[in-house]
Design goal:
Low-confidence stretches: none
Helix content: 25-40%
CATH topology of the largest domain: D-amino Acid Aminotransferase, Chain A, domain 2
Number of helices: 7
Number of strands: 16
Oligomer: single chain
CATH class of the largest domain: Alpha Beta
Structural class: alpha+beta
CATH architecture of the largest domain: Alpha-Beta Barrel
Distance between the termini: 23 Å
Strand content: 25-35%
Mean pLDDT: 94
Length: about 300
């Protein structure tokens, strides 16, 4: 989503290493290890009416991601939770996006950096729907990505790590240049995996099918939507899905903190129409995070 206000030049406060600091003062040195070697992990969270959805799960995952990248965040889950709440309150926000990020500092420059200080910061800002609502209700258009999600033996795929998003940025830019909203990525075996920043679901004969999260994040929103579907008595099958199956599905939607539940109308040459299952889960999710906010798919 385009934003004309640069993120480095805003009013407000960012929590950084234990204290709220003026937004413009929340800076790091150019030789920070996280910038050069991607030793950084982060979370994406949403607050609705001032309450951060699944906050503790996000904080737990942040700590787990750091451990996978071989560093320990010097704050507890409870302390990170409180930092996130403090940032939302300090910036007088209600419905907003929250971004905790942890990284290795500038004490060492080189691949080896065991003695670098570990930093933690939390920022929050107003952020509406990831996709415009009028586009979202009709379903977004997705193209096919060129890059693939890597083999877990080649990358720390269970961490929400900054380095894993390099190919996502490349594919998102390519998709947008072509007039699409996002790109569908396969995994290293050629199976359907996810989009550049969201998990994907398909519907066939009233049954939901979604790729097994074995080389990409099992998203918090993904798990939430699966729970909502099961509460409705909708069967959910997690399995390998091959690209030649895409034509057999009638509905498709993606999920994520930013995307929430977003219907898909097209993946390359394959067309889908947002219908009952997608509409039900979209409304159930919005009711869960923000009661009384319901939408209707066309």
């Amino acid at each position: 989503m385009a934003d004309l206000i640069p993120f480095h030049d805003r009013d407000g406060f960012i929590w950084m290493d234990g204290a709220l600091v003026p937004w413009r003062n929340a800076n790091v040195h150019i030789l920070t290890h996280g910038l050069h070697y991607a030793s950084s992990v982060f979370e994406g969270e949403r607050a609705y009416d001032g309450e951060i959805f699944k906050l503790t799960e996000h904080s737990e995952r942040l700590i787990a991601s750091a451990r996978i990248l071989d560093f320990t965040i010097p704050y507890t889950v409870a302390e990170i939770d409180q930092a996130c709440r403090d940032v939302v309150a300090a910036n007088k926000l209600s419905d907003c996006y929250v971004r905790p990020v942890a990284w290795r500092g500038s004490e060492q420059m080189g691949v080896s950096a065991q003695n670098s200080k570990i930093h933690l910061a939390v920022a929050a800002w107003d952020w509406g729907s990831y996709f415009p609502m009028e586009q979202r209700l009709k379903g977004i258009r997705i193209t096919n990505a060129v890059y693939r999600r890597p083999d877990p033996a080649c990358a720390p795929s269970r961490a929400k790590a900054a380095g894993l998003y390099m190919i996502c940025t490349l594919e998102k830019h390519r998709a947008e240049r072509m007039g699409y909203s996002d790109a569908l990525m396969l995994d290293w075996k050629g199976r359907v995996a996810e989009c550049t920043g969201a998990n994907i679901f398909f519907v066939k004969d009233g049954v939901i099918h979604t790729p097994t999260a074995d080389c990409f994040l099992n998203g918090i929103t993904r798990r939430t939507v699966i729970e909502l579907a099961k509460k409705r008595g909708i069967q959910v099958i997690e399995r390998d899905i091959m690209p030649d199956e895409l034509a057999s599905f009638s509905e498709c939607f993606i999920t994520g903190t930013a995307a929430e539940v977003t219907p898909v109308s097209e993946i390359g040459e394959h067309k889908y129409k947002p219908a009952k299952v997608t509409e039900t889960l979209l409304n159930d999710y919005m009711e869960l995070v923000k009661p009384k906010k319901r939408v209707a798919a066309e």
